[in-house]
TrEMBL record:
It comes from the Bacteria. Signal peptide: none annotated. It comes from Dictyobacter formicarum. InterPro entries: A-crystallin/Hsp20_dom, HSP20-like_chaperone. This is SHSP domain-containing protein. Belongs to the small heat shock protein (HSP20) family. Pfam families: HSP20. Residues 1-91 form the SHSP domain.
Length: 91
């Protein structure tokens, strides 16, 4: 899973895995350059959140994330599925 969040520092990102969902929350508050203090720009700022439903159970202990060039990459390995097993009925 990859999320583009340019201008955000890795320590400003919070990732939570709960049951079958992943929530990514970050805050973006750009500092305007001195020469443009009086200009109005359409830059969004504030707290942002993305939530994703997972199609399969994951191993939260083995999950990880990295951040490079404004792209947050989240690695969510699937949990080992229990194998089916036939049980004989004894008489």
């Amino acid at each position: 899973m990859h999320i583009p969040i340019p201008g955000v520092k890795p320590e400003e990102v919070d990732i939570t895995i709960l049951n079958d969902a992943v929530t990514v929350r970050w805050e973006y508050a750009p500092t305007p350059p001195e020469e443009s203090k009086n200009l109005h720009r359409g830059i969004q700022y504030g707290t942002f959140q993305e939530q994703f439903s997972l199609p399969a159970e994951i191993n939260a202990e083995a999950a990880g994330a990295s951040f490079k060039d404004g792209i947050l990459s989240i690695h969510l390995p699937k949990a080992k599925q229990s194998k089916s097993r036939k049980i004989r009925v004894s008489t």
